[in-house]
Amino acid sequence: LAEKLANTSGPTSLVIEPTLELAAQVVSETESFSKYLDNPKIKLCSVVGKRENRDILTELRRGAQIVVGT
Predict the structure, then answer these.
(1) Which residues pair with 68 in a beta bridge?
(2) For the segment 18-34, what is each residue's pLDDT rounded down to a tens digit?
(3) Are strands 44-47 and 66-69 parallel, antiparallel or unpaired?
(4) Burial bucket for residue 34 (CB in 10 Å: 0-12, 13-18, 19+)
(5) b/e 53-64 (16+ beta carbons within 10 angstroms → b)
(6) Cα-flanking dihedrals φ and ψ of residue 16, to 5°?
(7) CA spacing 20 to 30 A to 26: which of 16, 32, 45, 54?
(8) Residue of 45, 48, 58, 40 lying closest to 12 (CA atoms)
(9) pTM of the full predicted structure?
């Protein structure tokens, strides 16, 4: 399954948190543990109220694998 998902375009996971702080913690922890994976280049996109829409869209177009939002 992981091999199939690695070759897809677009996000493979969506994480929705109730607060900005929890979303930021999920992003931080995911970045921390991803360095131990075979492919540590996990691309994250944070979709929270304090970010500019154009910045979010730019990250999504670059190929975010995990989207974390509020």
Answers:
(1) 15, 46
(2) 999 999 999 999 988 88
(3) parallel
(4) middle
(5) eeebeebeeeeb
(6) -115, 125
(7) 54
(8) 45
(9) 0.77
